[in-house]
Design brief:
Blueprint: E1 4-11, E2 19-23, E3 39-43, E4 55-62
Antiparallel strand pairs: 1-4, 2-3
């Protein structure tokens, strides 16, 4: 209830040095005036697969999140 595993895939012909992953609590309804502040996570890429050198996949786990909250 307080963690998520996030994965993505990108195509890049240039080497990827790092990803910046941002997330925050969403504004759920009009009673919440603004969304929460951004949380930033710098993510290093994995070494590439020789057969898939332009396809890059990464996965991170977000933990310590608030239960029953939209991000």
């Amino acid at each position: 209830p307080d963690s998520y595993k996030i994965s993505w895939e990108v195509e890049s012909y240039s080497p990827i040095i790092e990803y910046m992953f941002k997330y925050r609590k969403a504004r759920y309804n009009s009673s919440v005036p603004t969304p929460g502040p951004w949380n930033e996570m710098m993510v290093k890429p994995d070494s590439g697969d020789a057969n898939q050198r332009f396809q890059h996949r990464k996965q991170v786990k977000l933990s310590g999140l608030a239960s029953a909250t939209t991000y």
